[in-house]
Automatic annotation (TrEMBL):
Domain of life: Bacteria
Pfam families: MFS_1
Annotated transmembrane regions: 21-38, 58-79, 91-108, 114-135, 156-176, 182-200, 260-278, 309-327, 333-353, 398-419
Residue ranges of domain Major facilitator superfamily (MFS) profile in the record: 15-422
Database matches in InterPro entries: MFS, MFS_dom, MFS_trans_sf, MFS_Transporters, Sugar_transporter_CS
Subcellular location: Cell membrane
Name of the protein in question: MFS transporter
Length: 428
């Protein structure tokens, strides 16, 4: 006789990549679609600002990145809190609903204000969808393979950014800047919403299982970080007080500051040097392609070698790559710089997320991820504003030099302030 449903034993979720492989792979695919929504803009929008809307001031042209970065940063924080309160899946589905009108607005925009409005929606959507896929993968895999999980997540997203940037560059070269390049975004949004609604499963219970089995570090470093922290306490710990969390937050912000520079000004710099749109598309794709593919290696490597060496080295490598962009004047030199910039970012990006997951207690980890991503994606807004003002006042190359110096300084902050967060690497 089958027992009543109320009396049946509840199946306890099993943590681990192998135990949850199907759902994990589905979330990787969903995050690739999230990245594709961002990639549709990387090549086309900076050129659209200048050629169709006549924006000659860099500060004005970069308002779309400012709008995107500010809204994505704020939404990241909300996404973390909502994921704890309402569950991960509802937040993911909401993000895709908000993404649906973005490519249509870009296709039909009669003025630059429409483009900015589309990027407000894109920022909100990316904050909800990308944050949630990060949190859900951390939920599923448990502590041992966190670096690998973040590497796979970020690799999928940024390989899709690269592939879409490359594809839209070739489409724009053949058919024009609008509307054809943005048809990809329409398909991505529809597919992402369908998969998230019909196939993705809720993962919040996995975090509760990990929290129940959570043990303190043997060195006692996290003893002050109790399971029950208020939202304000999580914000303060992640942003300022806890050394590893705060070091990761500032590094994430500077990383995306230089990405905002690359997104908004590199295509204009390359065009001013006489490169055709197809070559600009290759350069716009090369950086996130190396970034994306490299994370397949660096995420797992941080599980063995530790988080701190990769973060410090990656920030310094990015600084050197930016200096090479400022010095360069040809496709070949800029291609080398793009590869180096992508490699440095690959060392940093999944490792920072893994470090946050190492330190934050499972009970407030989603909120801590949200705070970290608030700072990290705030770098887009800061980068767009600072790079625009510097480029208008002193030229694009001067803006690149300043950002290179800030990136190097950020790496030194990590070297001084951050401790090793991965217990196994620290013990070794």
């Amino acid at each position: 006789m089958t027992p009543p449903a109320a009396n049946r034993p509840t199946k306890v979720p099993r943590l681990g990549l192998r135990a949850n492989l199907a759902q994990f792979c589905l979330l990787v695919a969903v995050n690739a679609l999230v990245g594709g929504m961002l990639g549709q803009e990387r090549t086309v929008l900076p050129l659209l600002a200048e050629r169709e809307f006549g924006l000659t001031a860099y500060t004005s042209a970069l308002t779309f990145i400012l709008a995107f970065g500010a809204t994505k940063a704020a939404t990241n924080y909300v996404a973390g809190a909502w994921s704890d309160r309402f569950g991960r899946k509802p937040v993911l589905v909401l993000g895709w609903l908000i993404a649906l009108p973005v490519p249509l607005l870009l296709i039909w925009a009669p003025g630059w204000g429409w483009v900015v409005a589309a990027n407000v929606l894109l920022g909100i959507s990316q904050g909800l969808t990308w944050s949630t896929t990060v949190i859900m993968k951390i939920d599923l895999v448990g502590p041992d393979r966190r670096g690998l999980a973040m590497g796979l997540n970020e690799a999928a997203g940024y390989l899709a950014v690269a592939a879409t940037a490359l594809a839209t560059g070739y489409i724009a070269a053949r058919y024009g800047l609008r509307p054809e390049p943005f048809y990809l975004g329409v398909a991505y949004a529809a597919l992402g919403l369908g998969l998230s609604t019909l196939v993705v499963r809720e993962t919040r219970e996995y975090a509760r299982v990990e929290a129940a089995a959570h043990t303190a570090r043997p060195d006692g470093r996290h003893d002050h970080l109790h399971a029950r922290l208020t939202d304000r306490q999580v914000l303060v710990q992640t942003s300022f007080r806890e050394p590893a969390l705060s070091a990761a937050s500032q590094a994430g912000m500077v990383n995306n500051l230089n990405d905002g520079l690359a997104w908004g000004l590199f295509p204009v710099l390359f065009a001013a040097a006489g490169l055709p749109v197809a070559q600009i598309g290759v350069l716009a794709a090369l950086y996130p392609a190396v970034w994306g593919a490299g994370q397949l290696v660096t995420g797992a490597l941080s599980d063995r070698a530790g988080r701190k060496p990769l973060i410090t080295g990656g920030m310094l490598l990015q600084a050197g790559a930016l200096a090479l962009v400022a010095l360069g004047d040809s496709f070949a030199v800029w291609a080398v710089a793009a590869v180096l910039l992508g490699a440095g970012t690959a060392m940093v990006y999944p490792t920072l997320l893994a470090a946050i997951g190492d330190v934050a207690h499972p009970a407030w980890r989603a909120r801590s991820v949200g705070v970290y991503r608030l700072w990290r994606d705030g770098g887009f807004a800061v980068g767009a504003l600072a790079a625009g003002l510097l480029a208008d006042g002193f030229g694009i190359r001067a803006a690149v030099w300043v950002v290179a110096a800030l990136t190097a300084a950020s790496g030194l902050v990590v070297a001084v302030r951050m401790y090793e967060t991965h217990p196994r690497a620290r013990a070794g």
